## 1
Amino acid sequence: MAEFSTDAWRDGKQLVVRPGCTLPDRCIKCNEPAQRLTRRSFYWHHPGLYVVALLNLLIYAVIAIFVRKRTPVTVGLCRQHQTRRSIVLALATVGALAGTAVAFKGLIDMSYVVVGIGAFVTLASLVFGIVAGRVLVVTRIGENYTRFDGAGAEFLASLPTFYRTR
Ligand SMILES: [Zn+2]
């Protein structure tokens, strides 16, 4: 694989890529050799849409599915970061299942306090899994480029600097 990729750049602390880009064969968090490269889909929509979420979550979810943009990017993680992510996702899954079980037990016992605790644990586990388990955070998907937060400084330093083309 070529060491130099013309599809990925750094712009300050952000990673800028072309859609469908395959990133270098290194961990995007720590720049160590990647254990494996994974093709992932990243989604983004205009932040203004969150106003709808404040009004009605369901309507927001339906609109978001239709207007969101998608970028496929092939991303590498080292063994350590891969393992860390697996542990986070496993903990989140166990937490969500345990919370759901507690909520059902509360329903059976007609204890709404227990239902509330179970629902809270489930929701907290899901949020934890989504936030701690994400590999990169999309800040914008544009016509030609996608921008991400969350790439490691050493990985970014290995990429060429992005110059805006107008
Ligand atoms: Zn790593």
## 2
Amino acid sequence: MDHVRSALIPSTEPSPEQIRQAEIKTLNTINDLVVYAVDPSIYDARPFLGWDSEELRKLTDFNGKIVIDIGSGTGRLAFVAAETAAVVFAVEPVGNLRRYIKQKALSLKFTKVYPIDGTITDLPFPPGFADITMGGHVFGDSPEAEYSEMKRVTKPGGMLILCPGTSQTETKAHEYLLTQGFSWDLFEEPQDGVKRKYWKRVE
Ligand SMILES: C[S@@+](CC[C@H](N)C(=O)[O-])C[C@H]1O[C@@H](n2cnc3c(N)ncnc32)[C@H](O)[C@@H]1O
């Protein structure tokens, strides 16, 4: 929130334009959180959720697997896995989104999708719990801590899958994932452009 601080406690009086720019930046920062709290269906209708979900299916076989989807949101990845998985735990820290996923699972008649509270650095599962651990648009703030926690909850021989949603110019998480031996490829997120996806089998 440095942009807010610099607008609110300036060394000189801010201009109306500086104040407006600070307002816009602040609103952009909290935009998604407001949508999650007010009406998750607005997020669920965003164009990039109309991606080709085959991009996930072709990375691994979900059939009969225990799957964790971190930062599940409205369940973009979770509901693809749930077509064939034994069970999908949709880890989501926002209570309103957990309620939304539960309701969506009921209306889509998916009986094996379980929303659960947690974060990418504090997953509520024992070591080696899941066959597949994945996350869409959630990895990257603290790559080392996030990767370490994802690996902890995944069985040896299991899969890690990430669709971070960042642009192709992002380097910090990308370079970290390559040093950890992830494979990667590109795919299209409608209206958001070409994004990277990553996958790795846990040793
Ligand atoms: C941009 S949405 C992505 C939702 C969904 N995975 C997708 O690909 O459409 C990011 C989600 O991650 C959740 N989130 C934010 N910080 C998180 C964290 N530290 N750990 C787990 N989830 C987090 C948010 O509440 C939100 O639902």
